[in-house]
Here is the input.
Amino acid sequence: MREIVIFGILLLNLIVQSSIFPFIEVFHVKPDSLLSLVVSFALIAGNPTGVLVGFCGGLLQDIFFGNNLGLYTLQYMLVGYLVGLLHGKLYVDKIFIPILTVIPANIVKQVIILLYNFFAQTGMPQDKIFIQAFIIETIYTIVLMPFIFTSIVKLYNNKFMRKKRHFPKIR
Here is the structure.
C-alpha cells in the first residue's frame, strides 16, 4: 500500500509540475517540487525509499519532459541516495533541517546539469545559467519545502505507511 501511495504522489506531482508551475516561472525557471519530495522521503524513510522515489520521479520526468532518458533519473536518484545517508544521523525537525538539506541537494542537481552540458557541448553559457537557475530554483524550493515536508510527515504518521507486510510461510 505504501508503494502505491508514493507512486500516486509522484503522479500528482507530475501533473502539478506540468499544469500549474509553468504559470509561475521566473526567468524560465519553475519550482522543483520533485526535489522537495525526494529530500522529504529520504529524510523521513531513509535510503532505499529516497533512492526509489528519486529514481521513479526522475524517470517520470525523463519520459514526459526530458530530451535525454536518464538525466533527471540520475539527478534525483543521486540526491535521494545522498540525503538518505543522513537518515537517523540528524534530528529532523519541522522546517530547519529539511530547508538546510535542500540547498546542497539543489547544488548536486545543478552540478550534474552543468557537467552534462559541458560534456555534451550544448553551447549554453554555463556560468550565467548555473547562477540564475540555482538561485531562483533554490528560493522556490525553500519556499515549497515546509509545506511538502509537513505533508509527508503527516502521511508517514498514518498506520498504513509504517505497516510491514508479513507473508505466510509456505510449508
Q: What stands out?
A: The mean pLDDT is 87. The CA atoms of residues 110 and 130 lie 7 Å apart.
